[in-house]
Amino acid sequence: MTKKFIMTAIERKNKEFINKLNSENLKLNVCSGLDYRENFVNLDIGDKDIYDHAIKVDVIHDITKSPYPFKDKAFSYIYMHNSLEHFEKDMVPKIVKELCRITRSGGVVNIIVPYFTNYVNPRDLTHKSLFVYETFQTSCMNEYVQSVDTKLILTNNKFFKFLNRIINLNKKLIKIYERFFCYMIVAQELNVKIKVK
Known about the structure:
Elements: H1 2-20, E1 27-30, E2 41-44, E3 59-60, E4 75-81, H2 92-101, E5 103-114, H3 120-123, H4 135-138, E6 145-153, H5 162-167, H6 171-181, E7 189-196
Parallel strand pairs: 1-2, 1-4, 2-3, 4-5
Antiparallel strand pairs: 5-7, 6-7
């Protein structure tokens, strides 16, 4: 009974917050964790992150549960940074599909995930999925997706960022990198921008 009461209170708070939203340019920060963003709706599973740090959120919802508490095409931009890797592989396309459902036509779902050779993957036992360049072009396509633009981020070091531009010149370079060099020159992240129909 207590759990049901708590869920009802959370749902009521979510509904009150969502009803106040009426902007033309709504943005959503999914799995916000410690990255609370102003001018965004910040969504997470609770008021603590996976490491038990207290976090500030606007809407509490488990993104493995569909539908999300938002109307179709509610957001013009959705941002998800270093979160999708914490979900099982079979959940990834479902989560992406639901994010696309709540994104306006012409809007963007921006997902940043660690590249599969990134050193954090074996170190962080909460990582359940690994991502390569082609992951989002193949397994995450759905009826909402117009196009997918994936950029490989080799480094965030300001002196070597030019390498990111070089590797992303064309898909052939990325395929050669993934086939022969990805364990020698380890990439950091994939920055995926999904444009919605």
